[in-house]
Write a structure and sequence with these properties.
Elements: H1 4-19, H2 22-31, H3 47-62, H4 65-83, H5 108-119, H6 125-139
Length: 152
C-alpha cells in the first residue's frame, strides 16, 4: 500500500515538473479563450486550477510563501480568462444572459474552494472578494442551463 509520504513525494515531483511550464500554460490558455464548442460554449481550461490547487495544498503543508503566490496567480487566471473572451460572446447562448462563467460549475468549484481555503491567510480582502465573485459567477449559469435549470 502506498504511504502518505510516497503520495506527498509524488505530488511534490509533479509540482516541480509543472511549475516550469505554468507561465507558458497560463499564456497559452489565455490565447485560446476565444474558442467555443458548439455543444457547451466557452469552456474554461482546468490546467491552471489543477496547478493552483496543488500549490495551495503544498502551501498548507509547508507554509512557503511562493507556493501561496503561485496558487493565487493560478486561481486568478479565471478572471483574466474571462477578460479575453470575444466582445459580445455572452449573446451567443441563453445561459450566458448574466455573463459567461469563469469556471465550469460542476467539477471545478470542488477544487477551487479548498484551494482558496488553503491560502486564505495570505489573501488580501480584495483577492478574497475577487475569488468569491469568481465562484458566485460560476454558478449563475446553472439556473439557465437547459440540463441543470428548472427541469432538474
Amino acid at each position: 500500500m502506498t504511504s502518505k509520504a510516497e503520495y506527498l513525494q509524488f505530488i511534490e515531483k509533479a509540482y516541480v515538473r509543472e511549475k516550469e511550464h505554468a507561465l507558458q500554460e497560463y499564456e497559452r490558455e489565455l490565447q485560446k479563450a476565444h474558442e467555443a464548442t458548439p455543444l457547451f460554449g466557452y469552456l474554461p481550461p482546468r490546467s491552471m486550477l489543477d496547478f493552483g490547487a496543488t500549490c495551495a495544498f503544498l502551501y498548507a503543508l509547508k507554509r512557503e510563501e511562493q507556493l501561496a503566490e503561485q496558487a493565487k496567480r493560478a486561481l486568478l487566471f479565471y478572471q483574466d480568462w474571462r477578460k479575453q473572451l470575444p466582445e459580445g460572446a455572452e449573446q451567443s447562448r441563453p445561459e450566458y444572459e448574466e455573463g459567461i462563467p469563469p469556471m465550469e460549475p460542476v467539477f471545478q468549484p470542488i477544487l477551487f474552494v479548498p484551494a482558496v481555503q488553503n491560502i486564505r491567510d495570505t489573501l488580501s480582502e480584495e483577492d478574497l472578494r475577487v475569488m468569491s465573485n469568481l465562484l458566485a459567477d460560476t454558478f449563475r449559469t446553472v439556473w439557465r442551463f437547459p440540463e441543470w435549470g428548472s427541469s432538474s
